[in-house]
UniProtKB/TrEMBL annotation:
An example Gene Ontology biological process: peptide transport
Protein known as: Nickel import system ATP-binding protein NikD
PROSITE patterns registered for this protein in UniProt: ABC_TRANSPORTER_2 (PS50893)
Catalytic reactions of this protein: Ni(2+)(out) + ATP + H2O = Ni(2+)(in) + ADP + phosphate + H(+)
Gene Ontology molecular functions: ABC-type nickel transporter activity; ATP binding; ATP hydrolysis activity
Description of how the protein assembles with itself and partners: The complex is composed of two ATP-binding proteins (NikD and NikE), two transmembrane proteins (NikB and NikC) and a solute-binding protein (NikA).
Length: 363
């Protein structure tokens, strides 16, 4: 079997804060293959973003104290800043929830895309020109090509009227269009891996569904590997091939999305899914279950979910919980599953629909 594009193995990332050590990611393992969309699902604070940021060590990722991250056969945990910078501009792109952070307000959107294309395509000569500080696009035909490429990318991400909008400034765009523009910049370098951290969370459901379907097309057409981070079961269901369920920095369950969402085995996955189904019916009781779940224990002995689990036994609270793996690529970290009173599948008839942000956003 060919090697995965990205392999994260036993990753441990921590923060040394005024209030002590925070073990944000505590032994997380997963892979992303070429042409595969892998989701990371978990509530707020479960370590999704820290996992993503650890991959490229962007924006204060914390200190990686254990494990390994291999991307295209390169070990990233020990890579130099220069290697990481090269990867980020080239092979790995990231998209975050807030597009305003990734866009420069003083340049037209098209120029920012063209710049990203240029960096990607820059030859040794261009690198030398960059080094010498010679400005880009002195050459009109180079700029014309870059502009055309940018227009194509705007079209690909669903920005209407790309010929006109290529000259627009970020503030002239709605939130949805801005997020599409960020995606276009991310795609300009033709990345092998796209890491998207809650890319549609602030958008209305129609825009969200459209952007997610474009991610799937990207995978289909360009064989891009995608790591999609979301707290929203519906987003994961719509988009991913496989999913990794995180709780308090640890993987509770992982496997093919259909199996995890229709026949979840870990009590945490089951709680997360039934809350999600009921939340979409605005069930207040479910909301209060979520509130109780959202306060992970700080102890790392045993299962992190033990205090909230209805199946807990003494064994769950001590030692480490082994992860079992079966032949269909399913992993489970639970001592008690399967449960004899298992009625989950018959109770949950369908995969919940996306219930992302409700902000109005016309794009
Ligand atoms: N810069 C930081 N300094 C200290 N602790 C941090 C820092 N960034 C994250 N953490 C902690 O690491 C843990 C995981 O955070 P992370 O941002 O990965 O959660 P998340 O799953 O992405 O949540 P959300 O859905 O809210 O984005 C949390 O306990 C968080 O408080
Ligand atoms: Ni996050």
């Amino acid at each position: 079997m060919s090697r995965p594009l990205l392999r994260v193995e036993n990753l441990q990332t921590r923060f040394d804060t005024d209030h002590g050590i925070v073990d944000a990611v505590n032994g997380v393992s997963f892979t992303v293959d070429q042409g595969e969309i892998v989701g990371i699902l978990g509530e707020s604070g479960s370590g999704k973003s820290v996992t993503a940021r650890s991959i490229c060590r962007l924006e204060d990722p914390g200190e990686i104290v254990g494990g390994s991250i291999t991307f295209a056969d390169r070990e990233l945990t020990t890579a130099t800043e220069a290697t990481l910078r090269q990867l980020r501009g080239n092979k790995v792109s990231m998209v975050f929830q807030d597009p305003t952070e990734s866009l420069n307000p003083v340049f037209p959107v098209g120029e920012q895309i063209a710049e990203s294309v240029r960096i990607h395509q820059s030859s040794e000569t261009q690198r030398l020109l960059d080094f010498l500080g010679v400005s880009p696009f002195r050459d009109r035909s180079a700029w014309k090509n870059a502009r055309e490429h940018a227009i194509g990318l705007l079209d690909q991400v669903g920005i209407p009227n790309p010929e006109a909008n290529v000259s627009s400034f970020p503030h002239e765009f709605s939130g949805g269009l801005r997020q599409r523009a960020v995606l276009a910049i991310a795609l300009a370098s033709e990345p092998a891996l796209l890491v998207a951290d809650e890319p549609t969370t602030a958008l209305d459901t129609t825009t969200q569904a459209d952007i997610l379907s474009r991610l799937r097309s990207l995978r289909d057409e360009q064989n891009t590997g995608i790591l999609l981070i979301s707290h929203d079961v519906g987003v994961i269901a719509q988009t991913c091939d496989r999913v990794v369920v995180l709780y308090d920095g640890e993987v509770m369950e992982a496997g093919p999305v259909e199996r995890i969402l229709t026949a979840p085995e870990h009590p945490y996955t089951r709680a997360l899914l039934s809350c999600s189904v009921r939340n979409s019916d605005a069930d207040e009781q479910a909301q209060s279950v979520m509130a109780r779940l959202g306060d992970p224990s700080s102890s790392h002995e045993g299962c992190p979910f033990a205090d909230r689990c209805q199946h807990v036994t003494e064994a769950c609270r001590s030692g480490s919980v082994p992860t079992t793996e079966d032949t269909s690529d399913h992993r489970l970290a639970c001592l008690e599953a399967p449960f004899s009173e298992d009625k989950f599948v018959s109770e949950q008839q369908e995969i919940p629909a996306a219930n992302g942000g409700q902000q109005n956003d016309t794009a």
